[in-house]
Specification:
- The chain is mainly alpha-helical and 209 residues long.
- It has helices at 15-25, 32-39, 43-54, 64-79, 89-92, 98-116, 129-148, 156-171, 174-206; strands at residues 30-31, 95-96.
- Strands 1-2 form a two-stranded antiparallel ribbon.
Length: 209
Amino acid sequence: MTGTSLTYRKPPRRLSQVLRQLAETSAGPVTVEMIRDALGDRSFAALLVFCALLNLLPLPPGSTLLFGPPLILITVQMIAGHQTVWLPRSWLRRSVGLERFRSMIDRLAPQLERLERLVKPRRWPFESATTSDRVIGVIGLVLAIAVTLPIPLGNWLPAFAVAIIGLSLSERDGVFLALGTAVGVVSLLIIASVIGAAGALAALLFGWA
């Protein structure tokens, strides 16, 4: 018998359509709770994609500290086998002005739509939904931690990898899962190289042994 997972329910509409509708129909500031409720049963996969794509926008320094922790919390819950996403009440109350939200969606939606046209059910390697959620949760957690690191432009590639993996989960696309994992491995190698080079430079400058 295989496990059940809300991430396995095929959404009646694409994530880009849901976000566009929310931007069009909202009458005031958009809260995190409104976004979560709009995503409904797609919460895990869709929130992974949404939070990851936010990191691809040109945002002020330090913004990764806002979007990284939600990714970490979501992936931890996937590993724990949760069936619905839990977010702290303080996070759910956070809001963004309507015009700013619409501007964000105008930038995000075209990127998301291009990816959505490519993803489809194929070559899914997992028989158990519970197993897939936990394995992908582990991969996502490592990448989510990388997203939060204060490295200039260092969050872009791991965030993109999380977005691809989130889309693969929503459609059970094994090809996208492999692609997202490969991009994630490359991003981690790059980050490790940057940290190693920075450490070596610091040791040279300060004469550390």
